[in-house]
Design goal:
The protein is an alpha/beta fold. It is built from eleven helices and eight strands. The chain has helices at 3-22, 34-46, 62-77, 96-103, 113-118, 134-142, 189-198, 205-208, 225-232, 234-253, 264-271, and strands at 26-29, 50-55, 82-85, 88-89, 92-93, 127-129, 170-173, 178-181. The strands form two sheets. The protein has a six-stranded mixed sheet with strand order 3-2-1-6-8-7. The protein has a two-stranded antiparallel sheet with strand order 4-5.
Length: 287
């Protein structure tokens, strides 16, 4: 069985489990990136009944937001239910820029509260399908990026949208009562792009400009790519700096150590890896 057909069979089994256990269609998680484009087209080609969910992170590039809107319009014209979920934290609407001062620490590769709050809340008590892949995990590890939330291997927490070698094509998330299907878990980058070409999938225009990723602007997991992102999206840099300013104010009011950071710009430079103390400063636990 080729990978296309294997992925479709996984989707069909996920759809059957969704109807059996939740009496509702399978949810296709859609981010506007290449992997979720493939996942969406596979769902269409499979003939299963499904809905589409996008978690609005508040930190996506404008091109990604517009692309998602265009895709949703096309799907809705075909009668497919599409939902945007906006982030909520402790019962109140939140954004990346509000979350940073609330948490009192910057989001980092080790402290990824942003993913948990901004991307992981949708699909509770439902069956969902994601575009996570082992191959993407290998690529990130070669770049030296550490994607788990804890230093000790036994304490690591895998986020639903993580590309990790421990992921399986069928999983359960007991915390959020989700069933998770990862139909393209074993696909390579070449498989993804071949499927996009063969099915003439309209992708996020940023890929056409040579961008390799289209996730949250400034994500610490993107490593040095962030410099190019902030050159293009200078407003995002200012929003991060302003959020760090407010974070320092909250920390000072709580009597927390801010070390030598004078302002949000200092934190931003540290956050970008321009300070030898980057891995040494213990911010403490997030709120």
């Amino acid at each position: 069985m080729d990978k296309d057909q294997a992925a479709i069979e996984r989707l069909k089994m996920g759809a059957q489990a969704s109807e059996t256990y939740y009496q509702a269609p399978l949810i296709i998680c859609y981010s506007g990136g290449k992997d979720s484009e493939v996942l969406l087209q596979l769902a269409i080609n499979s003939g299963i009944k499904f809905e589409v969910l996008h978690n609005h992170t508040t930190a996506d590039a404008p091109e990604t937001v517009y692309h998602i809107s265009r895709t949703f319009r096309r799907l809705e014209e075909r009668g497919i239910k599409c939902t945007r979920e906006y982030p909520i934290y402790k019962g109140a609407p939140v954004s990346m820029w509000l979350l940073i001062p609330i948490k009192k620490i910057p989001p980092t590769r080790l402290i990824r509260y942003c993913c948990e709050v901004l991307k992981e809340q949708g699909g509770k008590k439902r069956a969902i399908a994601t575009g996570v892949r082992w191959d993407e995990s290998h690529a990130r590890s070669k770049r030296g990026l550490y994607e788990d939330s804890a230093r000790k291997i036994g304490d690591r927490i895998i986020i639903n949208n993580d590309n990790d070698e421990k992921r399986r094509w069928y999983e359960r998330c007991e915390l959020q009562a989700k069933t998770i299907v990862n139909p393209i878990i074993d696909w390579t980058d070449a498989d993804v792009w071949d499927y996009i070409a063969d099915n003439k999938i309209e992708c996020n225009p940023l890929y056409c400009e040579g961008w390799k990723r289209v996730g949250c602007v400034g994500c610490p997991m993107a490593d040095k790519i962030r410099y190019a992102e902030f050159r293009r999206y200078q407003k995002f840099e200012q929003m991060y700096i302003h959020a760090f300013d407010r974070m320092l104010e909250v920390r000072a009011a709580d009597g927390k150590d801010n070390r030598t950071w004078r302002n949000g710009y200092d934190v931003f430079r540290w956050w970008m890896g321009e300070n030898h103390l980057q891995e040494e400063f213990d911010w403490g636990a997030a709120e």
